[in-house]
Amino acid sequence: MKLRITTLLIAACAISTWASGQNTSKNAPATCLAPEALSAVHLYGLWRAEIDGEPSGASVRFQKDPEQDNSVVGSINRDGAKAKPALLAGDVQHGDFQLEESDDGVRISATWSGQVVETSCGKEIKGLWTNALTDQTHPFVLRKQGGWE
Q1: Cα separations (Å) of 22 from 17, 28, 29?
Q2: Dihedrals φ, ψ of 17, to 5°?
Q3: Domains in the chain: how many in total?
Q4: Bridge-partner residues for 141, per DSSP?
Q5: Same domain, yes or no, for 20 and 84?
Q6: pTM (2 decimals)?
Q7: Are residues 25 and 43 in the same domain?
């Protein structure tokens, strides 16, 4: 009889512990990094760019800079553009985003300067895109696309 009660109590404890563990992890609030904690590695992947004044958006891909640990390199493909993709290089530090764009791989054709959006968990950046030839500025938004992170 004692063995039966002991076994029953052990089983009851195991079930309640398992159920409690399930509820805790399922109901735990999602956490994300503050903009100040983001680094280049959080930029890796595919982003969608919208630049005011441009008729269509663009796809941006960032990857690790092989020469600098805290930087990214990549490219931007403007929707509908027949020209080859422009090259990109930049970083994010303390929530500040800085990027240089080059149409020919030699000269800077534009700069991007912005901030990681506080409530975006590092998945949205807003700022100003500046044409290096004309000094015209346009607001931009970069939004990280789904997939591997």
Answers
A1: 9, 10, 14
A2: -65, -45
A3: 2
A4: 50, 126
A5: no
A6: 0.76
A7: no
